[in-house]
Design a protein that fits this description.
Layout (H helix, E strand, L loop, with lengths): L13 H5 L8 E4 L31 H17 L6 E5 L5 H4 L9 H10 L9 E5 L12 E3 L16 H8 L1 H5 L8 E5 L10 H17 L4 E4 L9 E4 L2 H20 L12 E6 L6 E7 L5 E11 L5 E7 L3 H7 L1 H14 L3 E9 L5 E7 L6 H5 L1 H6 L4 E10 L3 H7 L1 H7 L2 E8 L6 E9 L2 H12 L3 H12 L1
Parallel strand pairs: 1-2, 1-4, 2-3
Antiparallel strand pairs: 5-8, 6-7, 6-8, 9-10, 9-12, 10-11, 11-14, 12-13, 14-16, 15-16
Length: about 475
């Protein structure tokens, strides 16, 4: 069992935040991350109304996607849920897994989740339920669900936030039109409607029309798809080779977007490209909770970490700087609260913010849901009590360890020092590896880097990258 020196007590939870203005809301978290074109489980069909894009996703493996987006990411995002109902969706039954049910008759992926949440004080553990499909969820009469992203299969459930409003709030196109301070953006909308989509020649011609705007624009710039997942639809164009590579990927994906236009979603402008000025520098990840009245509650402000392919891989937080960061980004947080309130959204959200050459804070992306950095903010007090001032969360690590092997290898960090917290864990199908999201903390950055290096010895992606460097 994964456990800390003492049970982890979070500074705040989603339960606390949803009720901070005295609403007494009856809210159930139904956490699942949509995929663009691969069905993850029999009970979670692909959406036809709420469509998403991930053209540069590193895998099309349905089993791996299910373990990530039905288990790993929902666990990580629910880590700070608190004592409130949490629904997660089962993996499809696997004969090999069913042979190794543990003594509580939980399926292995269910046991993974309970081990993670058992690190928390009992007063802050989610009330976890697993179901195969949304219709299996049991509700009280006045209960409503909070979701990570709108999905067709969840539409039958009573939502806390209108799904179409939430979808618009998540949209890169919506951000460009929001009135928030953003880099200059050009929106390339399709001119086709549902009735024209069956005409293949017309669709091919429309793809080229949209690509022509990319061909005509002077670098550097950024191309964004409207509902891309985890940065998997964002392309930075600095050179002609970058432009060529982007178009090579975007042509088939834009055609796919066009073919998904239908009478259910045409009014939501699901097919567009956003061409945006490239702002030099690094973005910070500002995580907030927007109350029902539109008041922003600061959670954390972190730097972002990216892998060798430019994909988000985690965050870094210096807790000693958080009050300064709270004040620095207070005006932008207030603008975000006003916009979210106007959109009808309330709940957790994150914003990626950059500062331009004139000192203006520009919002370059919105993640209108729990984000990877929310748990970093909630763990601030826990780590402070242990004398740890800096922390990093590393996401979706594929480790060449089972959960038991991981716990034995990092026994001191997990059980004695409290410098490691497992935010999410799911075993791989082979039973020999695990996918994890882990928070590491230390007294200073030097010690933290050493702990990260120790973890990376077992991180398959890091090991492969080091081998490539040596080969070169």
């Amino acid at each position: 069992m994964l456990s800390a020196p003492v049970p982890i007590v979070l500074d705040t939870t989603l339960r606390d935040l949803y009720n901070c203005e005295g609403g007494g809301e009856d809210i159930t978290l139904a956490f699942v991350v949509p995929t663009a074109d691969i069905q993850m489980a029999a009970g979670i069909p692909l959406s036809k109304k709420f469509t998403y894009q991930s053209p540069v996703h590193p895998t099309k493996d349905g089993d791996l996607l299910a373990r990530r987006y039905l288990q790993l990411v929902p666990q990580a995002f629910a880590f700070m849920a608190g004592k409130m109902p949490l629904v997660m969706f089962d993996l499809d039954q696997n004969v090999e897994e069913l042979r190794v049910l543990n003594s509580q008759f939980r399926r292995p992926h269910q046991a993974d989740a309970y081990y993670v949440f058992d690190q928390l004080t009992p007063l802050q553990r989610p009330e976890l339920t697993f179901v195969e499909k949304p219709s299996d969820i049991k509700f009280g009469q006045d209960s409503r669900v909070a979701v990570l992203s709108p999905m067709d299969c969840l539409l039958q459930l009573p939502h806390l936030v209108d799904p179409e409003a939430h979808y618009e709030a998540l949209s890169k196109r919506g951000l460009a039109l929001s009135g928030l301070p953003t880099p200059h953006s050009e929106i390339v909308d399709t001119v086709l409607g549902p009735a024209q989509i069956p005409d293949h020649e017309l669709v091919d011609s429309e793809v080229q029309r949209m690509m022509s705007r990319i061909r005509a624009r002077q670098p550097p710039f950024v191309i964004k798809m409207p509902q891309s997942l985890s940065g998997q639809g964002t392309f930075v164009v600095r050179t002609e080779d970058d432009r060529t590579d982007a178009i090579r990927t975007l042509e088939p994906e834009t055609k796919r977007m066009l073919n998904q236009i239908n009478s259910l979603n045409a009014h939501m402008s699901p097919c567009s490209l956003i061409l945006q000025s490239l702002t030099p520098g690094e973005a910070v990840a500002l995580s907030l909770f927007i109350t029902k009245s539109g008041r922003p509650i600061f959670n954390a402000c972190c730097s972002q970490l990216f892998d060798a392919n430019g994909k988000w891989g985690g965050n870094f937080c210096d807790y000693r700087e958080q009050e300064t960061m709270r004040a620095q980004y207070a005006d932008t947080a207030a603008k975000l609260g006003t916009y979210m309130h106007k959109m009808g959204y309330w709940g957790p959200m994150g914003a990626d913010i950059m500062i331009d050459a004139d000192g203006r804070q520009l919002v370059i992306d919105l993640n209108v849901r729990v984000t990877g950095s929310h748990s970093l903010g909630a763990l601030r007090g826990h780590f402070a009590r242990l004398g740890l001032h800096v922390a990093t969360i590393r996401s979706r690590l594929v480790l060449r360890l089972t959960r038991d092997e991981f716990q034995e290898e990092f026994r001191d960090e997990l059980l004695h020092f409290g410098s490691m917290v497992v935010n999410a864990w799911v075993h791989m199908k082979d039973g020999k590896r695990g996918i994890a999201t882990v928070t590491l903390a230390a007294e200073d950055k030097i010690k933290l880097d050493k702990l990260v290096e120790r973890l990376n010895v077992f991180n398959i992606a890091e090991v492969k990258q080091e081998a490539r460097k040596k080969a070169d």
